[in-house]
């Protein structure tokens, strides 16, 4: 049996190969063992699942293991987005939530993530403890399980609908009245995933005009992957243009990430979504506070924070670190370039439903296209161009590049003085004109991710080229 290892956001693996019922039971037992000393153990846990193949059955098995360990489960009665499962922790005052999902991974994958009582992604100290418990379980082979009928009769297994409370909460965070008064025409794409009937229903219940595509369960995700990227959202783009819609809004497989298409068919990258939202929070909502961003995310947020007397907090890659900043430092926005965000007043978990509704709010209140809002911001704060490039290398070359990367500390890069070197997560150098480059290695593949933010397209391409030449990628 292969080693079960928790990654940046839980354990994910290929179904029937490693993600099997037996292995799911082992992980569930490890989580149950971890929860034995939890002060909220008697309040139970939330269990939810996405639209992937057999997800609801995997969730039921987890519930049986929880019952076998004397822990009550509140089982979602439908496919449920990860942020909705996380929010349900707060309504039940639960010890946490167990989510069956592989998020935006290919269809053959499934996964488990544990969300602690604070309703945000588990930090490494928690996942390390679960992995320690997992090692014991695998060594001893002891799994405690209770039959479903028995668990129900002993009040250890209860189905519930997580949608109403979440929708009620979200409607308090969003200016839906402004969205509907703007008479926006919106195309919604839940990408066959767990976000079906969330974003579209919230908008329709307020009288908005909504067209929905890909809004039925398909474990094969239409033959693609449920990732709301420009490459995948071609159907949404076409529909926005053919319908003359104001916005296209997409959710990934478990609805914790977002994709946004403007009325002209342009895909709005997450970095731009983030700085539009921070600008909106500061200037329209009059919120005050810092912003948390990952080391790979746009420094446009830093420029805005500085204007208002704040400093952006830079975190390692992974929303768990951003969520921690939101909980402990009071950041009014937390986000990452890969398409996750949350705001103050919400849970410290990335939420695609929240993000897309906020984009509709911005479109409505500013009275111009998102492209127009971006121009307004860049006129004030300057232009930045951002891109991530994934470069595959020969596996034999990875160690060499890693060694060179650790020593990478140039005084000059791309003809500019290097003002700062950061090794928080990968190696990042910042130049004297504010542009920067970050190089990170994949933990599982012979692949390097090159993130560049520059002041022009030409400069960005030059910096990408210089990185590849230096490391002979």
Automatic annotation (TrEMBL):
Cofactor section: Mg(2+)
Protein's pathway: Glycolipid metabolism; diglucosyl-diacylglycerol biosynthesis; Lipid metabolism
UniProt catalytic activity: alpha-D-glucose 1-phosphate = alpha-D-glucose 6-phosphate
Residue span(s) of domain Alpha-D-phosphohexomutase alpha/beta/alpha: 4-136, 165-265, 270-379
GO BP annotation list: carbohydrate metabolic process; purine ribonucleoside salvage
Keyword list, A-Z: Isomerase, Magnesium, Metal-binding, Phosphoprotein
PROSITE patterns with a match to the protein in the record: PGM_PMM
Residue ranges of every copy of the Alpha-D-phosphohexomutase C-terminal domain listed in the record: 419-468
Enzyme class, broadest EC rank: isomerase
Pfam families assigned: PGM_PMM_I, PGM_PMM_II, PGM_PMM_III, PGM_PMM_IV
GO molecular function: magnesium ion binding; phosphoglucomutase activity; phosphopentomutase activity
Coiled coil stretches, renumbered: none
Source organism superkingdom: Bacteria
InterPro entries given in the database record: A-D-PHexomutase_a/b/a-I, A-D-PHexomutase_a/b/a-I/II/III, A-D-PHexomutase_a/b/a-II, A-D-PHexomutase_a/b/a-III, A-D-PHexomutase_C, A-D-PHexomutase_C_sf, A-D-PHexomutase_CS, Alpha-D-phosphohexomutase_SF
Enzyme Commission identifier(s): 5.4.2.2
Family, per entry: Belongs to the phosphohexose mutase family.
Protein name as annotated: Phosphoglucomutase
Organism: Formimonas warabiya
């Amino acid at each position: 049996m292969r080693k079960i290892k928790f990654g940046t956001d839980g354990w994910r693996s290929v179904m029937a190969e490693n993600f099997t019922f037996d292995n799911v039971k082992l992980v569930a037992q490890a989580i149950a063992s971890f929860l034995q000393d939890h002060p909220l153990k008697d309040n139970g846990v939330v269990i939810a699942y996405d639209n992937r193949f057999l997800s609801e059955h995997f969730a039921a098995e987890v519930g049986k293991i929880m019952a076998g360990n004397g822990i009550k489960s509140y089982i979602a009665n439908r496919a449920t987005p990860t942020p909705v499962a996380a929010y349900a922790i707060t309504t039940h005052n639960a010890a946490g939530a167990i989510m069956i999902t592989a998020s935006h991974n290919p269809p053959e994958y499934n996964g488990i993530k544990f969300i602690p009582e604070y309703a945000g992604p588990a930090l490494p100290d928690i996942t390390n403890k679960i992995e320690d418990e997992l090692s014991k379980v695998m060594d001893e082979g002891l799994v405690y399980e209770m039959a479903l009928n028995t668990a129900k009769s002993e009040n250890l297994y209860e189905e519930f609908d997580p949608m109403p409370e979440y929708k009620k909460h979200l409607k308090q965070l969003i200016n839906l009245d402004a969205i509907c008064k703007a008479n926006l025409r919106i195309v919604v794409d839940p990408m066959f995933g767990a976000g079906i009937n969330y974003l579209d229903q919230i908008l329709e219940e307020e009288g908005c005009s909504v067209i929905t595509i890909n809004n039925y369960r398909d474990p094969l995700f239409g033959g693609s992957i449920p990732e709301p990227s420009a490459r995948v959202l071609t159907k949404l783009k076409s529909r926005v243009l053919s319908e003359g819609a104001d916005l296209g809004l997409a959710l990934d497989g478990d609805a914790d990430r977002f994709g946004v298409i403007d009325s002209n068919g342009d895909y709005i990258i997450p970095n731009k979504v983030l700085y539009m939202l921070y600008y909106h929070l500061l200037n329209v909502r009059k919120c005050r506070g810092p912003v948390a961003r990952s080391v790979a995310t746009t420094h446009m947020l830093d420029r805005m924070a500085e204007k208002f007397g704040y400093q952006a907090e830079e975190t390692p890659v992974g929303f768990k670190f951003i969520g921690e900043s939101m909980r402990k430092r009071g950041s009014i926005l937390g986000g990452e370039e890969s398409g996750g965000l949350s705001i103050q007043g919400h849970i410290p978990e990335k939420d695609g439903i929240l993000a897309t509704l906020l984009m509709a709010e911005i479109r409505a209140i500013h009275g111009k296209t998102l492209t127009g809002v971006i121009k307004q911001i860049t006129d004030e704060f300057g232009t930045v161009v951002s891109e991530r490039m994934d470069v595959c290398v020969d596996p034999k070359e990875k160690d060499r590049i890693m060694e060179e990367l650790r020593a990478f500390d140039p005084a000059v890069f791309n003809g500019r003085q290097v003002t700062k070197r950061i090794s928080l997560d990968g190696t990042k150098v910042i130049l004297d004109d504010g542009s920067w480059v970050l190089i990170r290695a994949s933990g599982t593949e012979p692949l390097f991710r090159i993130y560049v933010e520059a002041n022009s397209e030409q400069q960005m391409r030059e910096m990408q080229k210089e990185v590849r030449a230096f490391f002979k990628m």
